[in-house]
Amino acid sequence: MVALKWSMKHLYGIQQNQTFWAASEIGWVVGHSYIVYGPLLYGATTVLYEGKPVGTPDASAFWRVISENHVSSVFLAPTAVRAIKKEDPTAKGLHKYDVSSLKSVFVAGERCDGATLNWLISLFDSRIPIVDHWWQTETGWPICAKMLGLEHEKNYTTSIQPGSSNTPVCGWDVRILPSSSSEDYQIEQDDHSQLKGGIVVKLPLPPGAFTTLWNNENRFVEAYMKKHFEFYHTGDAGYKDDSENVFVMSRTDDVINVAAHRLSTAVMEDVLCRHVNVVECAVVGMKDEMKPFKAPATIDDVQVLIDIQTLVNKEF
Question: Name one Pfam family in it (predicted).
C-alpha cells in the first residue's frame, strides 16, 4: 500500500485533484494496483472501464474516455495501442475529442516495440511524455520507469530510447547475469558493453513486492530465488546500456537456436514491426533437420516479403 501510494505522485506524477486511468482488467495485477489501491489511497480519481480499445464502438473509444473524464495520465498495454493503430492508423478518432487534459501516457504489460512507441509519440507531436515501463505480477508495481514526479526534463522525449523500459525505480537493484552464477555479476559491473543475460534483482526486494506464494513457500524459493543466490530471478532477459536504461528483450526461454546462433524472438519481432504494413507479429521457431530451428515467414505480398528480408538481413 505504501509503495503504490508513493508511486502515484513520484513515479506517475499525479496530483490529488487529477484523474488516473489504468486501462486494464480489474482482475489483473494492474487492476488491483492502479485501478483500485494506488489512485484511491493517494486521493486521486480513478476510471473503471468496461470495453475494448476497438469495436466499442470504434477505435476512438479510449480517446473518448480520456476526454469525458479529463484523464491526466493513462496506462495502456502495447497490444491495445497496436489494435487502435491497425483500425485507425492516422488517428482520425483522436482528433474528434479534446484530450488536452492528458499529461502523460505509460505503456507496460508486455514489451513495447519501437514502432508502436514512436507511433504514440507522433500522435502527440512529442508534447507529452510517452513512458515505457516494466514490472511484473510478482513485483506489484514498476521495476523500471521514468519517474515523472521527480523529473523536470523539458525535453523528455529527446531522451527516449525505444525498446527501453527506462532506468530502475528507487528500491530496485537491477542487474544482468550472463550465466547461472551470481559471481559473474562483477564482470557485468566492470564492463558496460551491453552484456545480454538474465535480468535479476538484488535482494531484498523493496516494499510492495511479493514475499511468498500462497501456501507454497517451497515453490517461491525454487522458482524465483534458488537459481541465482541472493537475487530474484525475473525470468526476463535483456541488457543495460551505459545510462542504466534497461532493455527487456524476451523471456529467458524465448530464444531460437538457428545454426548455432541464439536469436531473440523479441529482436526479430521488433525488426518486422518497423515495416509500415506490419501492425503486429509473432516469431516462433520451427524444427529444421540441419539448423536445428528456423524462423520461416509466410507473406503473400511479394514486395513486402522482399522489404522484410532486407530489414532482417540488415539487422542480423
Answer: AMP-binding
End-to-end alpha-carbon separation of the chain, Å? Answer: 45
Task: Answer for the pair 105, 74: CB distance below 8 angstroms, yes or no.
Answer: yes
> Residue 28 has what pLDDT?
87
Nearest to 141 by CA among 201, 225, 81: 201
In angstroms, the CA 294 to CA 284 distance is 9
- In terms of phi and psi (left: phi > 0; alpha: psi -120 to 50; beta: otherwise), the region of 162 is beta
In the chain, alpha helices (H): 2-10, 29-30, 38-42, 61-68, 78-87, 114-123, 185-190, 217-224, 265-272, 302-315
- Please tell me whether the overall predicted TM-score, pTM, comes out greater than 0.85 for this model: no
- Contact predicate 8/44, CB 8 Å: yes
Q: State how far the Cα of 50 lies from the Cα of 34, in Å rounded to an integer.
A: 15
119-164 pLDDT, tens digit each = 999 999 878 999 999 999 999 999 999 999 986 554 555 567 788 8
What φ, ψ does residue 268 adopt, rounded to 5°?
-65, -40
Closest CA to 167 of 112, 266, 240, 235: 240
Average pLDDT score over the chain: 84
